[in-house]
Design goal:
Helix content: under 10%
Radius of gyration: 28 Å
Number of helices: 0
CATH class of the domain at 50-131: Mainly Beta
Number of strands: 11
CATH architecture of the domain at 50-131: Sandwich
Largest sheet: 4 strands, antiparallel
Distance between the termini: 64 Å
CATH superfamily of the domain at 50-131: Immunoglobulins
CATH topology of the domain at 50-131: Immunoglobulin-like
Order of helices and strands: EEEEEEEEEEE
Shape: elongated
Length: about 130
């Protein structure tokens, strides 16, 4: 399509088969205006803030993946079912992060159901996970 502004555009379709040609011209006008359309390479939307724990459930310290931290830092807080915070881990921006959820000394959390909540200045994201007995 040409880069043109017009309110009197028509579509012409030409089909050729063998030695015969046929044309169709749209019966009504339509408009082409600059600035309307689709970009060839639109910018990718920002990754939303998210936290995932895997595998889930797990018998050993599970891995955590944090995405969408544009800048700054945050904190991953882990709560048991009673609402008691059992673990806090500082998280800094610079792309996706993966790390293990474990207590000091590398021990896994006790068996139970937990909520992992990522808190940053830009927002909050969370997920639930199950730690099985080890």
């Amino acid at each position: 399509m040409p880069q043109a502004n017009s309110t009197t555009c028509r579509l012409r379709i030409t089909a050729t088969a063998g030695g015969e040609t046929s044309q169709y011209i749209s019966p009504g006008d339509f408009s082409i205006l600059q600035g309307v359309g689709v970009e060839a390479n639109p910018p990718a939307p920002p990754t939303p803030l998210s936290v995932a724990v895997f595998p889930n459930p797990c018998t050993f310290p599970p891995a955590v993946r944090v995405e969408g931290m544009a800048s700054g830092s945050g904190e991953l807080q882990v709560y048991d079912l009673s609402g008691r915070m059992v673990l806090r881990i500082p998280v800094h921006s610079r792309g996706p992060h993966e790390f293990f959820l474990q207590r000091e000394g590398g021990a896994p959390l006790p068996a139970g159901v937990y909520a992992a909540v990522l808190k940053t200045a830009a927002g909050t994201a969370g997920t639930m996970f199950v730690q099985l007995g080890n």
